[in-house]
Design goal:
Layout (H helix, E strand, L loop, with lengths): L2 H14 L6 H8 L3 H13 L5 E4 L4 E4 L16 H14 L8
Antiparallel strand pairs: 1-2
């Protein structure tokens, strides 16, 4: 699993939980080491602005749900010209039918 896949999976895990999740459980679900998990958490905080908190009482991580709107992963947006170009390239790649047999 590459880094982007792990970041996406980490985001999904944290968004879908209502309670804290331990470091060990996160490591198991992501299939990564402690150091990799630490880097992933830091990247989510720094680059994506995810409000990931460590709950010392529950000994785990939780996403601050009051701020999740600002921390969603960016979507993929196309302009009208880009969509048209994709459709044209799709049509060009389709095998031609009809004609002689």
């Amino acid at each position: 699993m590459n880094q982007l896949d792990r970041i996406n999976q980490l985001c999904l895990i944290l968004r879908n939980r209502k309670t804290v999740i331990s470091r060990r459980d996160l490591q198991q679900e992501l299939g990564c080491s402690r150091a990799t998990l630490t880097r992933l958490l830091q990247q989510c905080r720094d680059f994506l602005g995810m409000p990931i908190d460590f709950d010392s009482e529950g000994q785990g991580y939780i996403l601050d749900k009051s701020q999740t709107r600002a921390s969603e992963l960016p979507g993929l947006w196309f302009s009208a010209a880009e969509i048209y170009a994709l459709l044209v390239s799709h049509q060009v790649q389709q095998p031609q039918q009809g004609g002689t047999e």
